[in-house]
Specification:
alpha/beta
């Protein structure tokens, strides 16, 4: 599971474009083409058209899917990594788009995931958004607001102890909560990060990263590539977009079919 180029950060930090074995395998799958956009055999010629800014977006999306797949850890590596996580040897980062007291899925589920992992012996850091008081009032019920992240963290830990039966003693100091600057986007109904979220983790915290609602976390992500920073990255989708699309009165079935293809 170590890096092949001497980087102490682990296998997940390799850049596949500099990995000859992965590149050769990718070229075989894509028809033997030597360019980054792959071979043309079996593909629509429109994939290979270049705009003034370079290779078409469609070709880039197709090829990045192959690259990330080829560069991922194999099942035995994943099994060893999971064992290291549960023993506390490898660190787990969980990044999400909401936090209590906003009672939404991306606040509650990641918190419980982090807490139960910590209870089993894992070292876990939960990274959650910090919102200005004016935006807290839009989301938190009962007009509850917090002047500092520390005050909100106390609320979260109290909720864990009272509602989930997971006290500080049960967690054994293995759960850490950190904060990233964010804003609430009313039109999207979502919290969006301000800045690079990867900067909140130390170089030695590069075991497993769980992205809760990755499609929202990456709206404006401009930091280090998740898959190059962590040995294993897991994305958890909280929204059934296919069901949402299907429920639309106008064009719902067509939108659902398109969503299914994207999935």
């Amino acid at each position: 599971g170590g890096s092949e180029d001497g980087d102490s950060g682990g296998a997940g930090r390799r850049d596949v474009r500099n990995n000859a074995a992965s590149r050769d395998a990718w070229q075989q799958q894509s028809g033997g083409g030597g360019s980054f956009s792959g071979g043309t055999e079996g593909h629509d010629r429109s994939d290979e058209r270049e705009s003034s800014s370079g290779v078409s977006m469609r070709a880039l999306m197709r090829d990045w899917g192959r690259i990330n797949w080829l560069d991922g850890p194999d099942p035995p590596q994943c099994a060893r990594l999971v064992a290291d996580v549960l023993s506390g040897k490898a660190h787990t980062a969980i990044v999400t788009t909401a936090s209590l007291p906003w009672l939404t899925g991306t606040a509650v589920n990641p918190l419980l995931r982090a807490a139960y992992l910590a209870k089993r012996g894992a070292r876990v850091t939960l990274l959650v958004p910090w919102l200005d008081v004016s935006e807290q009032r839009l989301l938190f019920a009962g007009n509850v607001t917090f002047a500092t992240p520390h005050a909100q963290e106390d609320f979260i830990l109290s909720w864990l102890a009272e509602r989930a039966g997971l006290s500080a003693a049960t967690l054994g100091g293995r759960l850490s909560i950190r904060w990233y600057a964010a804003r609430y986007h009313r039109e999207k109904g979502s919290v969006l990060a301000l800045g690079d979220m990867t900067q909140h983790f130390a170089p030695d915290e590069a075991g497993v990263c769980v992205l809760e609602e990755p499609e929202h976390l990456n709206w404006y992500h401009h930091g280090e590539h998740w898959c190059q920073r962590w040995s294993l990255v897991i994305g958890i989708i909280h929204t059934n977009y296919w069901s949402y699309a299907r429920s639309h009165e106008t064009g719902g079935l067509m939108a659902a079919a398109l969503t299914q293809q994207i999935n």
